[in-house]
Amino acid sequence: MSAKNSSSTARKARIEEMRRAERSRERRNRILTIGASVVIVAGLVVGGTVLVRSQSDKSTNADSGKAADANVTGKFVMGDDGVKTWKGKLSQGHPTTSVKYPMTPPVGGDHNPVWQNCNGDVYDKAIKNENAVHSMEHGAVWVTYNSKASDADVKALAEKVKKTPYTMMSPLEAQKDPIMLSAWGVQRTVKSAADPDLDKFFAKYVQGEQTPEPGAACTNGLS
After folding, report:
1. pLDDT, tens digit only, all 223 positions of the chain
2. Which of the four, 17, 143, 204, 220, has the lowest number of CB atoms within 10 Å?
């Protein structure tokens, strides 16, 4: 078996394993939800107060309605492989207001408490950065494009994303390049949907070593 075929087989096995794990998590979550419903109702009063206080520690602007700072410091460093890695701090707070990020698309920092569904989800309209960043915290790769990307590339990208758990795709007009790939702390531009660097990025960063919360859900979030 060639090295290429071996890599493809290993990647398919990894994706299937993630699918099985996701289905198992969904079944477990349904059982826990039913069993814990009474406890949740009783705990909402106390828990809500604690949550508000903890979030205020992360974002002083949460109560004012103003955009919170992402609490990000550092800069991108370009690698020989064309992947930019963020060198510095990427915080993981959960403010409930909008968040100001120093990069577009963002690759980390404080984010909304609810993640964007990222189980091969393709969105034809822009999604909120704050929810997408939470998805990347769970190990998702975010594929974004602007109006400079061709219709053929957008269609081909969507087909690849739909087949890959822990990925999502959406338009993002403000980004610099036509097609960009982002994961927690890393980012790169690709030339087209056929660019081999796209598959390499998926293989390395979908639930990759950079993931702050590996195995966390990519379903039951915001759709």
Report:
1. 555 555 566 666 667 677 666 666 666 555 555 554 544 444 444 444 344 344 434 433 444 568 899 999 999 999 999 999 999 999 999 999 999 999 999 999 999 999 999 999 999 999 999 999 999 999 999 999 999 999 999 999 999 999 999 999 999 999 999 999 999 999 999 999 999 999 999 999 999 999 999 999 999 999 9
2. 17
Which residue segment(s) compose the domain that 217 sits in? Answer: 1-223
**Contact between 182 and 141 (Cβ < 8 Å):** yes
Split into its structural domains, the chain has a count of 1
As a whole number of angstroms, the distance between CA 118 and CA 30 comes to: 19
CA distances, 141 to each of 26, 101, 164 (Å): 20, 18, 10
